């Protein structure tokens, strides 16, 4: 699914662009996600785990997102740099086709500028436009209070948790929380 380009004005006055990742941007996407994963423990992978992902594989993922009717990927770009990415996935199957799943990551330098809110508005609009979607879901890692506050701002509520879902480098464990928003 292709997201039409949209310009947004951030809290610092800078204009950013929301749009689907373009074919040929696999290297930029991998560089962005490696950086994002190195800036916080609240994403599911460490930066070096992305080393296993080839540029060709990333290009395939980008193209799948552009061609699929059940996935929409949205980049946030400032001056041609990818500073954030989010996605919505619409589930298939008779028993789960009423659900959509969201994910988001933003480079730390661009936190608190409103990018997450702009992205969530667009993702939720896509969910609301999709016939039959009544539940939107996401997960977050214990301690990620900033993300939890963003999700609650948009009406998401914790509906469950998975203890010991993530093992950190220091051996400590973190819970994963599940949130839902009813449309």
What's the CATH class of the domain at 6-133, please?
A: Alpha Beta
Instruction: Using the alpha-carbon principal axes, give the shape.
Output: globular
What is the average of the pLDDT values?
A: 96
**Could you name the CATH homologous superfamily of the domain at 6-133?**
Gcn5-related N-acetyltransferase (GNAT)
CATH topology of the domain at 6-133: Aminopeptidase
Helix segment tally: 4
- pLDDT < 50 runs, ≥5 residues: none
Name the structural class: alpha+beta
How many β strands by DSSP?
8
Distance between the termini: 21 Å
Task: Provide a descriptive summary of the structure in words.
The protein is an alpha+beta fold and 183 residues long. It has a domain of 128 residues: Gcn5-related N-acetyltransferase (GNAT) (Aminopeptidase), CATH 3.40.630.30. 28% of the residues lie in helices and 34% in strands. The protein has 4 helices and 8 strands. β7 and β8 form a beta hairpin. The radius of gyration is 16 Å and the shape is globular. 26% of the residues are buried. The mean pLDDT is 96.
Describe the secondary structure blueprint for this structure.
Blueprint: E1 6-9, E2 15-19, H1 26-39, H2 55-67, E3 71-78, E4 81-90, E5 99-106, H3 115-129, E6 135-141, H4 145-153, E7 157-167, E8 173-182
Parallel strand pairs: 5-6
Antiparallel strand pairs: 1-2, 2-3, 3-4, 4-5, 6-8, 7-8
List keywords for this structure.
183 residues, Aminopeptidase, eight-stranded mixed beta sheet, 8 strands
């Amino acid at each position: 699914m292709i997201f039409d380009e949209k310009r947004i004005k951030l809290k610092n006055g800078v204009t950013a662009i929301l749009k689907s990742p373009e074919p040929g941007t696999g290297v930029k996407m991998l560089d962005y996600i490696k950086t994002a994963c190195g800036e916080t423990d609240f994403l599911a992978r460490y930066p070096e785990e992305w080393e296993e992902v080839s540029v060709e594989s990333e290009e395939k993922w980008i193209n799948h997102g552009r061609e699929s009717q059940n996935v929409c990927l949205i980049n946030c770009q400032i001056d041609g740099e990818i500073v954030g990415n989010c996605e919505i996935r619409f589930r298939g199957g008779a028993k789960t086709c009423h659900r959509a799943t969201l994910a988001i990551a933003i480079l730390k330098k661009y936190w608190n500028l409103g990018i997450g809110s702009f992205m969530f508005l667009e993702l939720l609009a896509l969910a609301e436009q999709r016939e039959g979607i009544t539940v939107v879901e996401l997960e977050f890692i214990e301690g990620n209070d900033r993300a939890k506050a963003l999700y609650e701002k948009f009406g998401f509520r914790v509906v469950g948790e998975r203890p010991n879902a993530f093992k950190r480098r220091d051996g400590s464990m973190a819970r994963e929380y599940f949130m839902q928003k009813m449309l």
